[in-house]
Design brief:
The chain is an alpha+beta fold. Helices cover 46% and strands 12% of the residues. A hairpin with a 5-residue loop joins strand 2 and strand 3. InterPro entries: DUF6630.
Amino acid sequence: MSAPDNESDYEDDGYDFADDDREFDDEALVWQLLLLINPGDEDTALQQFGRFREAREEGGGGDVADQVQEIIDWTSGYLVDWKDTETFIDAIAQLAARWNLRVDWGVEDPGDEDFLAGTDVPELMARAYDRLREHGYTLWNRDTGGDAYAGWIALRRDDENMQAVCAALGIDIRPGSDAF
């Protein structure tokens, strides 16, 4: 499988997507998004892009954000129920481990029932956002339009590009410090 044929792969040539006013098709934009949420792991981005193309070819039209979520879930992104604090902690731990990071939740055992009952996903998201920023990453969340939280982690230096790519795709995102 080969990467899409476009010149917007800013990782290779210092390209700044955020300052470009050209229009890109959804495939080129999804490729950029996958590169952003898989920093340093083009193989994973390429595999996910292949799944995206396959879904599109099989008539999988619809909301791009949902399509992307399906191909990245638990590898490069998270999707959790609004009250499922335990799964949120597990998902962020798995995503952060890709870069050998561990999020400090402020307690010795983040799986403790009392801790989980005394917090919520937005509070945990804000903690994870702060801890990841210390290591040069940004936790993002996107508007799911429902009772769930979803998003991904990307390099902090790519914040402007992330916002530009998501805006062009019609995906409403915010930093994890400001949950939907």
